[in-house]
Design goal:
The complex is a heterodimer of chains A (300) and B (280). Chain A is an all-alpha fold. Chain A is built from 11 helices and 2 strands. Classes of the chains: A mainly alpha (300), B alpha/beta (280). At the A-B interface, helix 1, helix 5 and helix 10 of A face helix 1, helix 3, strand 7 and helix 6 of B.
Chain lengths: 300, 280
């Protein structure tokens, strides 16, 4: 890409102008994240100062507006977010990856194309529609089996469905970008289809698939509208998959518009914890990636 | 033109502006000197009705603009007190320490709802209390089928929750809920989708939904049917006023709008939303 800098156009200043403009856009996009972070921190500050992080993590229940004795235990909600996300990923990862393999390597070309269209359509369904479907169809079905219906299971199933297209489409794109030469080499070695997939395609597409999974997990943990309708919203550590849970996002969606004073600030603090929870794995992934790169460079 | 809440830091505003809000702000600022504007925030129960009133008020009073934003009664109280809104909307009585002037527009009741197929017709106050505190866990104990009761409660901060707590004399910490819901609509959908669920919502909204085919049933309280008539004559036990609140006495445009919203001219709008006009 560097050769662009040397062509004559740049001397006429057009490139400088365009480059400056694009840079400004990049700065705006990047700074939005920081402003949001500052905004959330400012909102959370009174809670962290007056209630304190220890109380947030050790209070047994979530009763922020109680006139008798307010309690601000958010541990159950953090656990709720993690459980729902883990469940959704457990469900969607094998499904997404296997369906991507089917679409790339086994499906007839036309069927594969149509399958992709269907997945893209699924990715475009608004989350509130998923929620409504969950509340009117899925929850009553689970309720007949094991009441109350609004449960960890319902939230996991809905979220799994929602992140499935993200996983399948990114995995498919990662598999598509494996160089054709790899497959030619595998053929030349006499490898079969299954062996090529396991030995060549999957290892080569590993980074892309992992990136897609992270994206899907981030979407799952931040998803609100669909989850709030089907999860039951009881702030507790669930004893079984049929018990209701309350992820952090649900709490914020349910209560933010109605909260005042300390209650409001505590909601900001939970939002901050959620951001840290999402940023943690993303940062870890970036760290692991650079470490890996260093190692490969050294070996080469 | 929109008032900017103080909790949004300046830098954030800057970035928002640069993304494109600037245009909107500039456009609306241009009109500032010609239009008289009023901002109302608060109760999501009041908001749809007040928005209808505002629309009619704007038509009959050219050169005025009434902004109605929903966000819960607590928000209405907070915004009216801080001056962020000219008028707050609340769907409950003022509490001690809330130093505002109330102006009553209408009355509403809160009633318990269940699924249409549930055979239970009536619950006494004590039965409701026992169900919500987990002492009664099966419908057969109150004359229903042998099914576990799924208790739906409202999220913290909602006026409906406060009215319900006021009626039952419970603290939210005493309530053993299976599900927590947000808006009235979510409570109605929960009862409609689950034959064993129990919930409570605004009578106006529940009656409207039941009339339009949603499979829910309004439960009698101590033998009294939850109807707008029972709310009107004051016999229904769980009622609440829908009010506009101002800091001190209302003046200028705010007074004009409050006089209008509490007058007979808007009774058809109050009834359209299945509430009961005040002073009836």
């Amino acid at each position: 890409m560097t050769w662009w800098r040397n062509i004559s156009l740049s001397r006429q200043g057009t490139d400088r102008l365009v480059g400056g403009g694009l840079g400004l856009m990049a700065v705006i996009s990047a700074s939005v994240v920081f402003f949001i972070l500052i905004f959330v921190c400012r909102g959370a500050l009174p809670a962290l100062r007056e209630v304190g992080l220890t109380r947030l993590l050790t209070d047994g229940r979530w009763l922020p507006a109680s006139s008798r004795e307010p309690q601000y235990g958010v541990t159950a909600m953090l656990a709720g977010s993690l459980l729902v996300t883990a469940g959704a990923m457990l469900l969607a990862t094998p499904l997404g990856l296997l369906s991507a393999l089917f679409e790339r390597f086994y499906a007839p070309r036309n069927l594969g194309r149509w399958y992709r269209r269907v997945l893209e359509l699924l990715a475009g369904v608004p989350s509130v529609v998923f929620g409504l479907w969950g509340l009117m169809v899925l929850v009553p079905a689970i309720n007949r089996w094991h009441p109350p219906g609004q449960s960890l299971l319902a939230a996991t199933l809905i979220l799994g469905l929602m992140v499935l297209p993200t996983l399948a489409l990114t995995a498919s794109a990662a598999l598509e970008s494996v160089p054709a030469a790899y497959f030619q080499a595998a053929s030349a070695l006499g490898m079969g289809r299954a062996a090529t997939i396991l030995g060549v395609a999957l290892p080569a597409a590993r980074t892309g698939i992992g990136g897609g999974a992270l994206l899907a997990a981030a979407r799952a943990i931040g998803e609100t509208m669909a989850v709030v309708m089907v999860c039951g919203n009881i702030a507790q550590i669930p004893g079984s998959v049929f018990d209701p849970v309350r992820p952090v996002t649900s709490t914020i969606a349910l209560e933010m518009g109605y909260a005042t004073a300390a209650h409001r600030s505590v909601l900001f603090a939970t939002a901050l914890l959620l951001i840290l929870m999402v940023a943690g794995p993303l940062g870890l992934a970036a760290f692991v990636k650079t470490q890996q790169k260093k190692r490969t460079v050294r070996h080469a | 033109m929109h008032k900017i809440p103080s909790y949004i830091p300046q830098p954030l505003l800057f970035s928002l502006t640069s993304i494109g809000i600037a245009a909107t702000l500039l456009c609306s600022c241009g009109k500032k000197d010609e239009t008289r504007q009023l901002i109302l925030t608060g109760s999501s129960t009041c908001a749809p009705m007040v928005a209808d009133m505002a629309k009619r008020f704007e038509e009959s009073h050219p050169g005025t603009r009434i902004d109605v934003q929903s966000g819960g009664s607590s928000r209405g109280i907070a915004d009216a007190t801080s001056g962020l809104a000219d008028i707050g909307m609340i769907s409950r009585n003022l509490k001690e320490g809330e130093d505002l002037t109330p102006h009553r527009m209408a009355m509403d009741g809160v009633c318990v709802i269940v699924h249409q197929d549930n055979p239970v017709e009536n619950l006494t106050k004590q039965q409701v209390i026992d169900i919500y505190t987990g002492k009664i866990e099966n419908w057969k104990d109150v004359g229903g089928a042998d099914k576990a009761i799924v208790v739906a409660n409202k999220a913290e901060g909602r006026a409906t929750l406060e009215v319900f707590l006021g009626y039952t004399g419970l603290d939210n910490a005493d309530i053993q809920a299976d599900i927590v819901v947000g808006e009235n609509q979510q409570a109605i959908k929960t009862a409609a989708g689950n034959p064993n669920a129990i919930s409570y919502v605004s009578i106006g909204e529940a009656a409207y939904e039941a009339e339009h085919g949603t499979p829910i049933k309004l439960i009698q309280a101590d033998g009294l049917a939850p109807t707008t008539g029972a709310v009107a004559n004051g016999s229904f036990p769980i009622t609440r006023p829908l009010q506009l609140v101002t800091k001190g006495e209302a003046t200028g445009l705010a007074k004009e709008f409050i006089d209008y919203a509490t007058s007979e001219e808007v009774h058809d709008l109050v009834e359209k939303h299945l509430f009961v006009p005040a002073g009836n």
